[in-house]
Every structure is written in C-alpha cells, then in structure tokens.
Specification:
globular; about 45% helix
Length: about 240
C-alpha cells in the first residue's frame, strides 16, 4: 500500500467512521426515514467497518443482510467487530449473477463512484425481479463542494434534479427525494468552503448530534422539508 493511500484511509476512517460513531441521533434518523423500505433481503453497498450494518441487521423487517465493502482493510475491521455479518469484499458489480434482493441501502457511497450512472443501473438490476426499493443518501448541493470533499474521494455533490434524472435513466420509478440537515449546509459551507478546514473532529460531531440535530430533524420531518441541505435522501423502486 502506498503512503498516499494509507493516509487517505486514515483520514476517511477519522471523518466517516470515528466521527460517525458519535452521530447516534443522525444514524437513528436515517434509519427511521428508510425503515419502511428496508424489508426482506437487503444489500448494503459500501458497508465500511459495519456501523450502519449493525443498525440494519437489527431492523425487525430485515431477514437477511449482505454487506458489500471493496476495501480490504475495512472488510477486515468489519469482520473483526461483527463476526456474524455476511460480508462480501467487493462492489455491486461483484454480486453473483442472478442475485435478487428486496432493498439496497447506500449511504454516502455513490459520490465516491466516478461512473455513478452505471452503478445505479446495477442497483436497478438487483432490485428488478422483486420490484425492490433503493434507499440512497448522498452529499448535496454542488455549490458547497469543498477541498475536504476531494480529500475523501467525492467526485460530486448532488442536487435533487440531477439525482432524480439519473435514477429515472437507470430504470427507477416512484422516486421520492428531499434535502436533509439544512443547518448542516451552513456549517459545511462555513467550515470547509470558507475556512477550508480539512478535518472534522468527533467532538464537534457529538455536540451537533446531541444538541442541534434533534431539533433540526424534528422541524424537517414534521413541519417542512427545506429547499436545501447538507445531504440528499432518496427512495426509488425498480
């Protein structure tokens, strides 16, 4: 492994794994949004070290979960932490031909894939036989694409129109999408676009998750869906 790749992995772990470990309310909110669609046999794309997978396997409607993770080191850590999880070291392209599932969960993965349209077509093919659902969560709003996005291998941030178009072209229908975490939009812009910070401390994540996010999500989920947000949440059927 090159030193550059090792540094990138370390940064990714710090930002997306160590920080995510503190985002308990955030994770629960995501699964609350997706829970109606996560039933039967589910494939999780880009499972990382298993933080989301552990939530997924506990959902009452999920009978079987297959975690996909292309990075060897992440797979090893995932297996060590959760030996009962079914894990395939690979991507959606490596799933056995003829495999069908009831749902696919993809959280903060699609932005890492250069050819995202081909990836979405792979998801549609896996879901088509059972007319399953794709539960998709991606970074939002191209205008807040920051140096830290590039550091973590993000090719893009999405807007609703672009994502809906790509889902339709991949063969999905009954598409529902909305922006998520409007306050986080401003925090991201201030810290990473304006100040150009290149790290995101777990302590800040914990503070935001415990104090600010519950209020923000209650307003967004029960009163109004904002016209912008740090992320974009979508569900679609094959």
């Amino acid at each position: 492994m090159t030193s550059e790749k090792a540094n990138l992995i370390a940064q990714t772990e710090d930002f997306e794994f160590a920080a995510l470990a503190e985002a308990k309310n955030y994770r629960l909110a995501l699964f609350k949004e997706f829970a109606p669609f996560l039933k039967g046999e589910v494939i999780e794309v880009g499972a990382g070290i298993g933080q989301m997978t552990d939530h997924l396997t506990r959902l009452p409607g999920v009978t079987k979960a297959l975690a996909l993770e292309p990075d060897h080191e992440f797979c090893a850590k995932h297996r060590a932490a959760f030996p009962n999880h079914q894990i395939l070291e690979g991507t959606a392209a490596d799933v056995a031909p003829g495999t069908a599932c009831d749902a696919i969960l993809s959280i903060n993965v699609l932005e890492h894939i250069r050819d995202d349209e081909t990836e979405l077509r792979r998801y549609a093919k896996l879901l088509q036989q059972r007319r399953g659902a794709l539960c998709l969560f991606v970074p939002a709003r191209p205008e807040i694409y920051a140096p830290i996005d590039k550091d973590f291998g993000h090719f893009r941030r999405y807007n609703r129109a672009e994502l809906s178009r790509k889902l339709q072209q991949a063969g999905f229908s009954r598409i529902s999408s909305y922006y998520f975490n409007c306050v986080g939009y401003f925090a991201w812009w201030f810290n990473f676009c304006l100040l150009k910070q290149r790290s995101f401390g777990a302590g800040k994540v914990k503070l935001y998750d415990r104090v600010i996010f519950p209020v923000v999500h209650t307003l967004e989920s029960k009163i109004f869906r904002p016209p912008f947000g740090q992320s974009l949440l979508a569900t679609a059927h094959a």
